[in-house]
Known about the structure:
By secondary structure, the chain is α/β, with parallel strands linked by helices. It has helices at about 5-10, 20, 30-35, 40-50, 55-60, 75, 85-95, 115-130, 145-150, 155-170, 185-190, 220-225, 245-260, 275-285, 380, 385-410, and strands spanning about 110-115, 130-135, 175, 195-200, 205, 220, 235-240, 260-265, 290, 295-300, 305-315, 320-330, 335-340, 340-345, 375.
Amino acid sequence: MSTIKQEAQRCLKCKNAMCSKNCPVSTAIPEVIELFLNGNIKKAGEILFYNNPLTAVTSVICPHERNCTGHCVRGLKGEPVMFYRIEEYVSRFYLETLEIPEIKKNGIKVAVAGAGPAGITMSLLLLASGYDVTLFEAQDNIGGVLRYGIPPFRLPREILEMYKDIMLRMGLHFRPNTRIGTNIMIDDLFPDGYKAVFVSTGTGRPNKLGLLGETLGHVHFAVDYLKSPEAFKLGQRVAIVGAGNVAIDAARTAIRRAHSHVNILHFMGEENMTANRDEVEMAQLEGVEFTHYAQAVRILEDRVRCVRVKRVENADGSVSFEEDYSDVFDVFADSVIIAIGQGPGADMKAAGVKLTQRGLFDVNENGETNTPGVFAAGDIVSGPKTVVDAVAFTKRVFERMEEYLKNVTE
Length: 410
Ligand SMILES: Cc1cc2nc3c(=O)[nH]c(=O)nc-3n(C[C@H](O)[C@H](O)[C@H](O)COP(=O)(O)OP(=O)(O)OC[C@H]3O[C@@H](n4cnc5c(N)ncnc54)[C@H](O)[C@@H]3O)c2cc1C
């Protein structure tokens, strides 16, 4: 494998850099690589951080093959430049050596609900601009899915500790174990002097299969399992229903923690899997079995009953999938983990904020809700997406919030 410097030297510094164009936060990749090669790592880190406060995270867990790496022109005829390796090194160094500058406080209070990627990004942007930020989080620590979903073997928790430390040093007030919408409501915040509220509570509620057997004692939802895998006793054989990133994370965690044999049941083919290619390949290497074209129809005490799915090529060229109820088979399992997507929790329903049919926050292109002063971004707006998408939209919402805050406090 090439060294990081050799990797940087392979960059062609394209004028019309497709890597940057296909990055949701338009990272200035050629510029960062140039600074890195000239030995100006701090400046490179600063550019990365101010453009994307979560650069130390996204460099590790972005779906690079869909963004920067996947669009590198070097990849057309050979190996693309692995920019994320350079980004990870530079952004880690930047965080580790960051000295917080003196920030002139403006005394304007803003509340942030939810300490996942969107909430952390917004808190950092507000704190850096002098706002008095209180971050409310339902769990006992910051990170959201970065801490309570993505396994530590993919994202070291020390990165999150660095972010927490930086925010606290910048003057953040952190209220852990505080769920907005149950006791403290959004409406309670304004009388206490908060001028705006940013909601970034994500989509932590797992979707149900709606099958018989889903409430049995050996059936779990992947997002619940990933929160604290040590709390679960899975047994030798684990069947996972679903084939996205969450399913793969649950499978790889079960193999590591419970040494289980894991079988992923997926109703379409391998080419239709939504999980990152890299993660799928690693799961295969680690021994995860994949049963494609299998639709779970019932969960029993020791097995998942499935029917075979047929891939049908339609006359108009489209492809559809049809269950064949004459072809029934059983997959034996001591535990079943369901990973078929997530939706928003119910906590915010009473806040008077307009929701979409899916229960997501209904916002305009700047993240404004129908309630003046209430803004939202991240998965609670988009539905389950990626960290870099949450950062990109949060940046846009921050700009609008600043305008709003200037108007209401003048
Ligand atoms: C298992 C898993 C693996 C993933 N892997 C990747 C990956 O590899 N790469 C990638 O880019 N994306 C990945 N994603 C998606 C990514 O993590 C999300 O898109 C991202 O975390 C969304 O950020 P968010 O801040 O909107 O929400 P979240 O990360 O969900 O954070 C929301 C926070 O709000 C808190 N909260 C909820 N309700 C309340 C309330 N009422 N009051 C106060 N706090 C509340 C929650 O406890 C949580 O801390 C993955 C998702 C999952 C579930």
